[in-house]
Amino acid sequence: LTIDKGAQDGVREGLVILSGQGIIVGKIIAVKDNMAEVCLVNSRECSFAAAIINADKTKGIVEGELGLTVKMKFIPQTEVVKEGDLVVASGLERDIPRGIVIGKVAQVIKESNELWQSATVEPLANLENLSIVSVLLPK
Q1: Cα–Cα distance, 139 to 93 (Å, whole number)
Q2: In what order do the strands lie in the sheet with 36-40?
Q3: Per-residue pLDDT at 113
Q4: Which CA distances in Å does 30 have to 33, 42, 69, 121?
Q5: How far apart are CA 53 and CA 87, in angstroms?
Q6: How many CB atoms lie within 10 A of CB 139?
Q7: Who contacts 75 (Cβ-Cβ below 8 Å, separation ≥6)?
Q8: DSSP annotation string for the chain
Q9: Exposure of 60 by Cβ count < 10 A (0-12 exposed, 13-18 middle, 19+ buried)?
Q10: Is residue 121 packed enough to be buried (19+ CB in 10 Å), middle (13-18) or exposed (0-12)?
Q11: For the chain: N or C, fewer Cβ within 10 A?
Q12: For residue range 24-34, what is the model confidence (pLDDT) as tens digits?
């Protein structure tokens, strides 16, 4: 995805891209003077520090898988994660504030002999039909 704003507009790598509804859809990965390249949340090049809104305030990394799905990885086995839990930005990245919605947990993958569990995340924005997006610029 390419947008028509770039370095001259204050855009830089790592800034978050939001849908018209304020949901995270991607991140800036390359910038030129008048344009920028965006990776969508389901892209393998795209990852976010994320948190699940649950009793444990579970943290992990959300990243795309082959442009098809989104996975949250590195969830400790001791954390209780349920389908339907909301996934948001954790606030641990420089220019991405905590609490911006990414999606919801669609499936929990928990293997008894693994150190981590993971979850399939369903993005709450329609990534196939984006026409207007916003770049969240820092103060």
Answers
A1: 15
A2: 2-3, 36-40, 24-31, 16-18, 134-135
A3: 84
A4: 10, 17, 22, 25
A5: 6
A6: 3
A7: 52, 58, 60, 81, 116, 117, 118, 119
A8: -EES--GGGT--TT-EEE-TTS-EEEEEEEE-SS-EEEEETTSTT-EEEEEE-STT--EEEEEEETTTEEEEEEEETTS---TT-EEEE-S-BTTB-TT-EEEEEEEEE--TT-SEEEEEEEESS-GGG----EE----
A9: buried
A10: buried
A11: C
A12: 999 999 999 99
pLDDT of residue 34: 95
Residue 1 has pLDDT above 90, yes or no: no
Q: Indicate the length of the chain as a whole number.
A: 139
d(CA 9, CA 121): 32
Question: Tokens 């948190």 label which residue?
Answer: 51
Q: Tell me: the pLDDT tens digits for 88-135?
A: 999 999 889 999 999 999 999 998 888 899 999 999 998 888 888 999
